[in-house]
TrEMBL record, chain A:
GO terms for molecular function: double-stranded DNA 3'-5' DNA exonuclease activity. Component of the 9-1-1 cell-cycle checkpoint response complex that plays a major role in DNA repair. The 9-1-1 complex is recruited to DNA lesion upon damage by the RAD17-replication factor C (RFC) clamp loader complex. Acts then as a sliding clamp platform on DNA for several proteins involved in long-patch base excision repair (LP-BER). This is Cell cycle checkpoint control protein. The keyword Transmembrane helix does not apply. Residues 264-286, 298-344, 359-382 are annotated as: Disordered. The keyword Hydrolase applies. Keywords: DNA damage, Exonuclease, Hydrolase, Nuclease, Nucleus, Phosphoprotein. It comes from the Eukaryota. Residues 264-274 have a biased composition (Basic and acidic residues). GO terms for biological process: cellular response to ionizing radiation; DNA repair; DNA replication checkpoint signaling; mitotic intra-S DNA damage checkpoint signaling. Gene3D superfamilies: 3.70.10.10.
UniProtKB/TrEMBL annotation, chain B:
Component of the toroidal 9-1-1 (RAD9-RAD1-HUS1) complex, composed of RAD9A, RAD1 and HUS1. The 9-1-1 complex associates with LIG1, POLB, FEN1, RAD17, HDAC1, RPA1 and RPA2. The 9-1-1 complex associates with the RAD17-RFC complex. HUS1 interacts with POLB, HDAC1, FEN1, PCNA and RAD9B. HUS1 does not interact with RAD17. Interacts with DNAJC7. This is Checkpoint protein. It comes from the Eukaryota. GO terms for cellular component: checkpoint clamp complex; cytosol; nucleolus; site of double-strand break. SUPFAM superfamilies: DNA clamp. Keywords: Cytoplasm, DNA damage, Nucleus. Component of the 9-1-1 cell-cycle checkpoint response complex that plays a major role in DNA repair. The 9-1-1 complex is recruited to DNA lesion upon damage by the RAD17-replication factor C (RFC) clamp loader complex. Acts then as a sliding clamp platform on DNA for several proteins involved in long-patch base excision repair (LP-BER). It comes from Hippocampus comes (Tiger tail seahorse). Transmembrane segments: none annotated. The keyword 4Fe-4S does not apply.
Length: 382, 285
């Protein structure tokens, strides 16, 4: 393998790697002769998968040895280190040369910088199988395409700590709400809701009025890439439980992010999701003041937080439809089946969901086992 | 109980956002009192919060273009809520470029302060975003806790040096000690001082000026003899509390005043147009 990236494309490559780093810890590299160089990533709970495919035209030189299939995986942190400062990258790096050093078994990244400065990174790697998620975005009923700016502005309304959003669609609108787990009874959480009208999208095709819940983190990752390259983002999805596919593409590259969505098993959640489109369209416009009346006897102490129903414990094992074929699939499969009974979210889908507030402190913490926690920043209670 | 306010002017929105931001840096939760003319953010000095108290007063007319409220009853025409200023700030921050913002009290899954904003878009239809910030309604029997604090019977009152300068000094001192002694006298001098076993650092400010408080009896006159102009009054405070105050403030006050009750309390006042913010830090032994 021997390829050279020049000019602005170095930055595009760097952005792709940074964007994938939001998903998982390991980067799977597979140079193929026809389609080009594939960079892939999957998170530890296998609920999110990302892939960038750079066609040979993206490179100014792209040579892959015939016949010998080379695939490897390596820590994404070490590859990120090569392209650490995106700002200086643009100014200083003129060319990036990636080649496989067979003698030393290292993948070498050489950055040719201004003033003849050379920066060489020799990265070790592990052999691996192909990582490939199976999904078919073209069969999805709901398809949208929008300028990344629109989604960036939309996502900005949700605080960074907010993990999941629920997205609902009607014929003319897309609604986004943050997903608050009612089982957790976190009444102190702030609820945010907004809608986008179809005019704001480049393409807006709805066949099924569905409502899906997914993680924002990976979407933010792809937005980081799309915003900088200015490529429109396409979204494809069906019913809850089947994956959401986000794609960007132009003539020389293609990026697909596949995210698991919360399964339909949480019936109440879906029903909740259907309500917003049904509600009168402009809540903002027609506000009769009486509708905001709070009839509350102020002589008694307020206790809305204590009356929340934490009674029913639902057994929900989320349905993980994103099938990933690799050598670790078996492990993932078994982990899926052994989902902890008392958790509303299967950790395979969304990482561990821990009680957020003090309201949960009366509940025995032992209910909240963490089976397969997400790749980062999850704190375990026990 | 009803409340609904509408902000149209971007400058007013930014102003309000900055005030809420300042408050969110000072306290996690506080009381929000709504009266027909004013909004008050109140933190009363509980032991749990280290005895720190806060009082922030805003005239509603300077912020809201429309403002309607109906209190608990006609005698007590007031609404008192426990709020998380951080959440209100977050909601306001994301709608900074809105065409108009409504803040209203709503009954959702729990009482909420709903921030609804109309955002400009490229298309003909505006984008609408709503943030529901859960609040607790404070019952009337607890209202007495949130009354305006009386002006302490201070020994010395002095104008503060530029807050940025003061922040830089306090930031450095915080690395060396947990406690800071604030001293001031009536001839416009103030010192910030830390003392540890290894080091003592003092920063002197002079010619700050002393505000006139009209016919206050205790300061001079009255039965007592006038206070010696050069005599220092001091308060030893938790340096983090003072730092919090200096870091968070975004109001850019036109006046900043420091009152000291000798070895009892440090009372800081920021005045900016219609907004006044008072902050009380108890002195430690």
């Amino acid at each position: 393998m021997d390829c050279v990236v020049t000019g602005g494309n170095v930055k595009v490559l760097a952005k792709a790697i940074h964007s994938l780093s939001r998903i998982g810890d390991e980067l799977y590299i597979e140079p193929q002769e026809g389609p080009g160089l594939a960079l892939r990533c999957v998170n530890s709970s296998r609920s999110a998968y990302g892939c960038f495919l750079f066609s040979p035209l993206f490179f100014s030189r792209y040579i892959v040895p015939n016949g010998i299939a080379f695939r490897c995986r390596m820590s994404i942190k070490s590859v990120q280190a090569v392209f650490r400062s995106l700002a200086s990258l643009e100014k200083t790096v003129e060319k990036c040369h990636i080649h496989l050093d067979k003698q030393k078994d290292r993948l070498t990244f050489t950055l040719h910088c201004k003033y003849g400065l050379l920066r060489t990174h020799n990265l070790s790697f592990q052999d691996s199988e192909t990582l490939q998620a199976v999904f078919d975005k073209n069969s999805c009923k709901n398809v949208f395409r929008a300028n990344p700016r629109l989604l960036v502005d939309t996502v900005a309304h949700f605080p960074p700590s907010m993990e999941e959003v629920t997205l609902s669609v009607s014929d003319e609108r897309m609604w986004l709400r943050n997903h608050v787990d009612e089982e957790l009874g976190d009444s102190s959480a702030m609820l945010t809701e907004l809608f986008l009208v179809s005019d704001e999208f480049d393409h807006f095709a709805v066949q099924a009025h569905t409502s899906i819940t997914f993680c924002l983190k990976e979407l933010r990752g792809l937005l980081f890439f799309a915003e900088n390259t200015g490529l429109p983002i396409s979204m494809y999805f069906d019913e809850p439980g089947s994956p959401l596919v986000l794609s960007v593409s132009d003539s020389i590259l293609e990026g697909d992010f596949v995210l698991a969505t919360l399964s339909d098993d949480t019936r109440n959640d879906t029903r909740r999701g259907d309500t917003p489109p049904a509600r009168p369209p402009d809540d903002f416009m027609n506000d009769d003041m009486d509708s905001y009346l709070i009839a509350m006897d102020t002589s008694i102490a307020p206790g809305p937080s204590t009356t929340d129903s934490t009674s029913s414990k639902q057994q929900v094992v989320a349905n993980h439809r994103t099938r990933l074929h690799s050598e670790e699939e078996e492990e993932a499969e078994t982990a899926e089946k052994d989902g902890p009974p008392n958790k509303k979210f299967c950790s395979l889908l969304f990482g561990s969901v821990l009680p957020l507030s003090s309201q949960m402190s009366t509940q025995p913490v032992s209910n909240q086992e963490v089976l397969a926690s997400d790749s980062d920043d999850d704190t375990q209670i026990d | 109980m009803k409340f609904r306010g509408k902000i149209v002017d971007v400058a007013c929105l930014n102003h309000f956002t900055r005030v809420v931001s300042t408050i969110s840096k000072l306290t996690k939760t506080c009381a929000l009192r709504l009266t027909p003319d004013h909004l008050f953010f109140v933190l009363c000095g509980k032991v749990a919060s280290g005895g720190v108290a806060m009082w922030c007063e805003l005239a509603q007319a300077n912020i809201f273009d429309e403002y309607q409220m109906e209190g608990v009853s006609s005698q007590d025409n007031e609404i008192c809520l426990e709020v998380t200023p951080e959440n209100i700030f977050r909601a306001l921050r994301t709608v900074h470029n809105a065409k108009s913002v409504k803040v209203k009290l709503t009954k959702k899954h729990c009482p909420c302060l709903t921030v609804a904003a109309e955002l400009p878009t490229m298309s003909s239809v505006n984008r609408v975003v709503t943030h529901d910030v859960p609040v607790d309604v404070i019952p009337r029997r607890l209202w007495h806790e949130f009354k305006e604090p009386s002006l302490p019977d201070f020994d010395v009152s002095v104008y503060l040096p530029p807050l940025k300068t003061m922040k830089n000094v306090v930031d450095r001192m915080k690395n060396l000690s947990n406690f800071l002694v604030v001293e001031a006298n009536l001839s416009g001098q103030m010192t910030l001082k830390i003392e540890t076993d290894l080091v003592s650092v003092t920063t002197h400010f002079k010619d700050l000026g002393n505000p006139h408080w009209g016919d206050r009896t205790s300061q001079d006159g009255g039965s007592q003899s006038p206070r010696d102009l050069d005599a220092m009054a001091q308060a030893r405070v938790d340096i983090r509390k003072l730092q919090q105050f200096l870091v968070g403030q975004q109001v850019n006050p036109s006046r900043a005043i420091c009152n000291i009750v000798h070895q009892t309390v440090l009372h800081l006042i920021l005045l900016h147009q219609d907004v006044s913010l008072q902050y009380f830090i108890p002195a430690l032994a």
